[in-house]
Each structure stands twice: as structure tokens, then as C-alpha cells.
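WP5 quarterly update. Target: DNA-binding transcriptional regulator, FadR family. Source organism: Corynebacterium timonense. Length: 231 aa.
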Amino acid sequence: MRAYDTVMAWVTSRLRSGELSIGDHLPSERALAEELGVSRNSLREALRVLEAMGMLQSATGSGPRSGTVLTAAPEQALGLALSLQLASSQVAPEHVFRVRLLLECAAMRSSDPATLDLEHVRGILEQMDQPDLSIEGFLLLDAQFHVALSRAASNPLLSALMGALRRAISDHTVELSRSLPDWPATARRLRREHAEILEALLSAGGDEAAGLLERHIVGYYEETHRPRPEM
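C-alpha cells (predicted):
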């Protein structure tokens, strides 16, 4: 068994048994290598793989914040896997768009506005109103807004999948947005639609908001994929 598989099996078994929880520190490198019967070099490589997957976070130094800590960032691993699939042309951006549309609208329909972190969501919208915000900054906040809304469905896997989808196509989305003839006008429309979606969710419920959300997502996709006249 590879060192990565050995460490993964060890962590998984202890999470299931309750011996470890998210936020706990792993044993020292020396102690863990001895317990698992692997070399310290192999252990380091395995820990780096798990850190890239969002399962661990490592910090050097001393004190309570140092060492290797168990974390929960499933969208990181899923996003990485999707990015590789996109790069190898096994998955097309349109496939990601279709899955995102299905997931996000389903999440909205099952959302409970009472569970929404309203202060956080409105804070994101306020940040998006900054006049000097870059395209990259705007789209990062846009992704945060949509993922924050999805959390009202109280399904952490849904939110993780949506976060992974947005992470996988972030560079592609920025590139398409840069090609738009009037980005400021697009940004104004998107901000207005965000406010309308949030208001619909709060006042009319998930079904009404899902209809606005679908038009919002499809409208932006169609705008960014519209053929441009050749210069």
C-alpha cells in the first residue's frame, strides 16, 4: 500500500471511531511515521497530497497553531479534480454550467430563509458595490454570494459541490468576462439581479427566487458565450 493510502486509511478510521475530529492535531511526524511503519520522507509526501486535497493544514513553528491539523475543505479536492478534467478536455465548461444550474436551482428551491446568514450575504453585496473593484475581485465575491445562498438549503455537500464547480472554472470565467464589450454595465446588471434574488428568497420563498436565479445564471452564460464581431 502506498504511504498516501496508508495515511488516508489511518485518518479515516480514527475519524469514524471518534478518536480524531476536525480541528485536531495529528501526532508528530516521527510518531506517526513509526506508528504507520513508513519512512518520514514517504509520510511527508502523503501529508502534502492530503493538504492539497483540503484535508490537512500544516504550519511550522511552535505553539498551539503549529503542526498538522485536520480540516474540512472538500470543495478544494473536488475543484482540483474538476480542473484536471477540464484541462484534459474530458469535461467541457458547458458541462460544468449545466450541473451548476441544476444544483443551484435545486438548492434554492429547498432553501429556508430563516437559516440564511443574512448579515454575511448583505456584506458580500456591499463589497460588490465598490467602484474600483477588479473583474477578478467581483467574480470572487459573486461566487461567495452564490455559495452563501446555497447554504440555506442546509446540505453541506451541495455547498461543497457548488464551491468546487466555481473553483474549477474561475480562470475560464475571468477570461470570458474580460472579453465583454461593456463589463461595467454587466456588473451593474448582475448586482441588481443579486439583490432581486435575495429579496425574492426572503419575501416570497425558494421557488420564486429559483426562477430569478435560473434567468440570472443562464443570462450571464449566454452573454459571455455570445459570438463577438471580429476586429
